[in-house]
Design brief:
381 residues; Rossmann fold; 2 domains; 8-stranded mixed beta sheet; 19% strand; elongated
């Protein structure tokens, strides 16, 4: 007998959890579309070279292998890189500017922990083909609006520009990006292990903390002010984002009442499409950390009462009345009501009633022989 179990870092979602996830996905999708973004889907499996050299230090987390055809492949690590491949592959079909959203699963071979898994859902939105920083501002505004629509009282975008790190080696940027996790002493210690003297490490961190917004960031701040989001952003000079393809604006979404880290990661990436094409196409966007967002919503009690989508359960009094029950269910479905017809007409009515109660359906219909003879039914709550 096979032991029923899931792999470490992978999960099943039973109905109660899946309903919560679908609630959040629906809000996120509607918010994407309210800003004029179109859906895109890409394969779960890509050539390994699609991702190699684009991610940076975390390429060790690829789920990669050689397939039966001898090709080196990898499961989708993120959604931005495959989208850049799509733009290069279909130049006649993808018209710029291109505003796309994508809600699909990604895989990373990392150590599982709270809010971090090896298989998880990402919800991305990006604008391609616009160099003006108003595109950055629009995506920042979208990311903030998503969290407002999910019920967060004051989502805050921490915003910086990778241009402010000009001259700083990528290895040092990766360390500074850990400031919120390991603290200033941890950053200095790790920088010294990478070859900096203690004085130089402390000076680099101090200089970073004292940087001021550049003109591009001022443009974004002005745009957000016009949206009435004055209280939903702040300049964060130590924000670094460790993706090697980040080239301009970077930001993360946090909530002051949620202490377990950022909810959304975001950046400009003007050189990524050129990995697949001779033409240069700028891009900017973000990925919602969906699982951490769900955890935050649970901790902050942001979910409304959620049960089943079923509006009514139609019971089957006995096998001879099954055709009547089917007709009732068909009429209700045609009227737009989610209707669950009990699937076994041999089960006693009391068990069907218990089924409807356990399911959480607000209504239940019973039609016995007497009701059928009069062409009426019982509606119970």
């Amino acid at each position: 007998m096979i032991t029923p179990q899931t792999l470490k870092g992978f999960r099943d979602f039973l109905p109660a959890d899946a309903i919560k996830r679908q609630y959040a996905i629906t809000i996120i999708r509607k918010t994407f579309e309210s800003f004029g973004f179109e859906p895109l889907e890409t394969p779960a499996l890509e050539y390994l070279e699609t991702f190699s050299g684009a991610i940076g230090e975390d390429e060790k987390l690829f789920f990669k292998f050689e397939d039966q055809g001898g090709r080196n492949v990898a499961l989708r690590y993120d959604q931005t890189v495959p989208t850049c491949r799509v733009i290069a592959q279909y130049p006649e079909d993808i018209k710029l500017p291109f505003k796309r959203y994508q809600i699909q699963t990604v895989w990373r071979s990392e150590k599982p922990q709270k809010g971090r898994y090896r298989e998880f859902l990402q919800c991305d939105a990006d604008i391609f083909g616009v160099e003006n920083r108003t595109a950055d501002a629009e995506t920042v505004a979208l990311s903030i609006q998503i969290y407002k629509n999910l019920g967060f009282k004051r989502p805050i975008a921490l915003i910086n520009d990778r241009a402010l790190y000009t001259g700083v080696p990528y290895a040092a940027i990766v360390v500074i990006d850990k400031l919120g996790k390991i603290g200033e002493d941890g950053v200095v210690s790790e920088l010294t292990r990478k070859g900096y003297t203690k004085d130089d490490a402390e000076k680099l961190l101090s200089d970073t903390k004292n940087k001021k917004p550049n003109k591009e960031l001022e443009t974004i701040f002005s745009y957000l002010d016009s949206y009435g989001m004055n209280d939903n952003y702040r300049f964060e000079p130590t924000l670094a984002r460790s993706f090697s393809y980040s080239t301009g604006t970077i930001w993360e979404i946090i909530d002051p009442n949620f202490a377990s880290g950022s909810l959304c990661g975001c950046e400009r990436f003007d050189s990524l499409v050129s990995r697949f094409s001779n033409r240069s196409v700028s891009g900017v966007g973000f990925a919602v950390g969906f699982d951490r967002t769900i955890i935050a919503m649970e901790e902050l009690n942001l979910f409304p009462p959620l049960t089943t989508a079923t509006a009514v359960v139609v019971t089957v009094f006995n096998e001879s009345l099954l055709p009547n029950a089917q007709k009732i269910a068909s009429k209700l479905r045609a009227a737009g009501l989610a209707t669950d017809l009990y699937p076994d007409p041999t089960v006693k009515l009391d068990k069907q009633i218990k089924y409807a109660v356990n399911k959480g359906a607000p209504y239940m219909i019973i039609q016995g022989p007497d009701e059928a003879a009069k062409d009426v039914l019982q509606l119970k709550t």
